[in-house]
Write a structure and sequence with these properties.
Chain A is about 60% helix and about 0% strand. Chain A has about 130 residues and is mainly α. Chain A has one domain: Protocatechuate 4,5-dioxygenase, Chain A. In chain A, helix 2 crosses helix 7. Chain B has a single domain, classed as LigB-like (Protocatechuate 4,5-dioxygenase, Chain B), CATH 3.40.830. Chain B is about 35% helix and about 25% strand. Classes of the chains: A mainly alpha (about 130), B alpha/beta (about 280).
Chain lengths: ~130, ~280
C-alpha cells in the first residue's frame, strides 16, 4: 500500500510495518541503555548480538554501523542512536553519516539554520518541478 | 479545588540537559539558549506550581518495542532518571503526586480517554530536560510532577486534535479535584526537527513560527494539521508538537507571558512559550 508519507524525501517513517520488521534490531539497540549490557557487548560483540535474532541483512548493517541502512530495515532513530552513543557518536555525527556529509559540514549547516525545506518536501515535486 | 494556573511549551533536546549537567551554560554555543531561559525561570518561580503535569514522550527508555502505548499516566510516587547510554542524569528523582494522578487517571478514562497506567517507570530526557529548563539545578525539584507520556515515535501518533481534546479532559479532571492546588501543564518536545534519514537536520522556522503564533488564540487551526503536515513540514520528529497542543487544550484563556526561539540546539529548533491562565 502506498502511504502519503512515502513521498517525503530522505525519511523513513516508523510505521507498524517497520516496527514489526525492526523488532529484534531495535531490541538489541535498546538493551544498550543498561551498563552491564554495554560491558557484555564491548567484551564480546558476536556473542552479544547472537542473543537477538535479526535477519542476516540487519545484523550486517548493525556490524557495519550503516545508520541509514538500519532505518531502511525497520530501525528507529531513537533506538539506533543508543548504538551510536555506545560508539561515542553525537547526533551530528549520525546526521552527517546518514546524509553523506562530514560532521563539520553537518554542524555548519545546523549553525546556518539547518537543512532547508525547499527541495526536501516531496519526491513527486522534485521530479516534476512543481 | 485544584486549578490549572499556567502552561508551558518547551523543547526537550537532550544536549540542553547534558550542557547543564556539565556546567556549560556559559559556553558560547549554549549561552544564548540559557540566557533565553532566564526570564521563564524567574516567571515560574513566581507561579510556584504545586504540581506540574508534564506531557512528554519516552525515547525507547522506560518503554520499548514489546509494548507501545499511546497515552500513559504515571501514578507512582517516585520516578528515577533513566540511563540513556551515558549513565542516568545527575538530577533529582521526580516526586509524583500519586493521589491527584489516580484521580486524573480515573477521570480521563470515565471521559473516554483510555489511559494506560504506570505505577513504576523511569523518566528520560523528555521529562527531565524541561524540568532543567524551567527550574535550573535545585537539590530537589520544587514541585511534584505527574508524567503523561505520549507515543510520538511510532506512526500513527495520536492526532493533534485528539491531544487537544485530551488536554481539555485533563483540565476537567484537575478542576474536579477537591484539594487547593496550583497546577502547571508542560507540553514538551519539538520544535521542528528531523533526526533521521538523508533529510536529517531539517529546520523549518516558518512552520515553527506559524505554530507559536496560533497557539494562544487559534489552536483549533493547529488541530487541523495532519500527520503528513507535521512529518513533511516540521520534520519526522517535529510531530512532537502535538504534545504542545495537549497543554493548550488544558488551558481555557491563556495569556502569553514569554516566548523564546533559538536555532540550532544540536539538530533541533529550540522553542519555549509560557502562558498564564486568565480565568
Amino acid at each position: 500500500m502506498d502511504n502519503d508519507y512515502d513521498d517525503i524525501p530522505g525519511t523513513y517513517i516508523f510505521d507498524t510495518k517497520r516496527c514489526k520488521e525492526g523488532f529484534h534490531l531495535n531490541r538489541f539497540c535498546k538493551s544498550l541503555d543498561n551498563a552491564d549490557n554495554r560491558e557484555q557487548f564491548r567484551a564480546n560483540p558476536t556473542a552479544y548480538l547472537n542473543q537477538y535474532p535479526m535477519s542476516p541483512e540487519q545484523r550486517q548493517l548493525v556490524e557495519e554501523r550503516d545508520w541509514l541502512g538500519m532505518l531502511q530495515v525497520g530501525g528507529n532513530i531513537y533506538y539506533t542512536f543508543k548504538l551510536a552513543v555506545f560508539d561515542g557518536l553525537t547526533m551530528q555525527h549520525v546526521g552527517g553519516l546518514m546524509s553523506d556529509m562530514s560532521v563539520d559540514d553537518f554542524r555548519a549547516m545546523m549553525l546556518d539554520g539547518g537543512r532547508k525545506l525547499e527541495g526536501n518536501q516531496s519526491k513527486k515535486q522534485n521530479q516534476t518541478g512543481r | 479545588m485544584a486549578r490549572i494556573v499556567a502552561g508551558v511549551g518547551c523543547s526537550h533536546i537532550p544536549s540542553i540537559g547534558a550542557a547543564a549537567d556539565k556546567g556549560m551554560e556559559q559556553d558560547p554555543y549554549y549561552q544564548p539558549l540559557f540566557d533565553g531561559y532566564g526570564p521563564a525561570r524567574e516567571w515560574i518561580k513566581r507561579i510556584a506550581p504545586d504540581v506540574v503535569i508534564l506531557i512528554y514522550n519516552d525515547h525507547a527508555s522506560a518503554f520499548s518495542v514489546e509494548l507501545i502505548n499511546t497515552f500513559v499516566l504515571g501514578v507512582g510516587d517516585q520516578f528515577k532518571p533513566h540511563d540513556e547510554g551515558y549513565g542516568p542524569r545527575n538530577v533529582p528523582d521526580v516526586v509524583g503526586h500519586g493521589e491527584l494522578a489516580e484521580h486524573i487517571l480515573e477521570s480521563l478514562i470515565l471521559n473516554e480517554f483510555d489511559m494506560a497506567l504506570a505505577n513504576e517507570m523511569s523518566v528520560d530526557h523528555g521529562l527531565t530536560v524541561p524540568m532543567t529548563v524551567m527550574f535550573d539545578k535545585p537539590e530537589a525539584w520544587p514541585c511534584k510532577v505527574i508524567p503523561l507520556c505520549v507515543n510520538v515515535i511510532k506512526y500513527p501518533q495520536p492526532t493533534g486534535n485528539r491531544c487537544f481534546n485530551l488536554g481539555k479532559a485533563l483540565r476537567k479532571a484537575v478542576e474536579s479535584y477537591p484539594e487547593e492546588l496550583n497546577v502547571a501543564v508542560f507540553g514538551t518536545g519539538g520544535m521542528g526537527h528531523q533526526l533521521q534519514g538523508e533529510r536529517a537536520g531539517l529546520i523549518n522556522e516558518e512552520f515553527d513560527q506559524y505554530f507559536l503564533n496560533h497557539l494562544q488564540n487559534s489552536p483549533e487551526e493547529l488541530t487541523k494539521l495532519t500527520h503528513l503536515d507535521y512529518l513533511r513540514d516540521a520534520g519526522s520528529e517535529g510531530i512532537e508538537l502535538i504534545m504542545w497542543l495537549m497543554m493548550r487544550g488544558a488551558m481555557h484563556s491563556p495569556s502569553e507571558v514569554y516566548r523564546f526561539y533559538h536555532v540550532p540546539m544540536s539538530n533541533t529548533a529550540a522553542g519555549l512559550i509560557c502562558f498564564e491562565e486568565t480565568v
